[in-house]
Design a protein that fits this description.
Blueprint lengths: L1 E4 L5 H8 L8 E5 L2 E2 L7 E2 L5 E2 L1 E2 L2 E2 L1 H10 L11 H12 L1
Antiparallel strand pairs: 1-2, 2-3, 2-4, 4-5, 6-7
Protein name: Aldehyde dehydrogenase
Organism: Methylocystis hirsuta
Length: about 90
């Protein structure tokens, strides 16, 4: 996995990869040519908005639902072993 910084020279290519417009300054996690990250959001916009992707598929709504259902603050992300375990059980198996 590599975390890339969007800038003018790669903005179009990375936006196509993510399937949405990426502003300069956005951080995007790419693995084997697809947007992917198992330990946090794969796209982090400069204004703090995040999008979660697994193997190229956006799962942000499902992740937000998981956090909401468990009464976890989304801003803290996967900061505990319980959260990481539940995330893995829900999305990675």
């Amino acid at each position: 996995m590599v975390m890339l910084q969007v800038d003018e020279r790669n903005q179009d290519d990375l936006s196509r990869l993510a399937g949405c417009y990426l502003y300069a300054g956005t951080q995007i996690s790419v693995e084997d040519g697809i947007v992917h990250r198992e330990d946090g959001p794969a796209v982090i916009f400069p204004d703090g908005v995040v999008r979660w992707y697994l193997r190229g598929k956006e799962v942000s709504r499902a992740v937000n639902s998981l956090f909401y259902d468990n009464k976890w603050p989304i801003a803290k992300g996967l900061d505990t072993e319980e959260k990481r375990t539940r995330f893995a059980e829900t999305f990675l198996t």
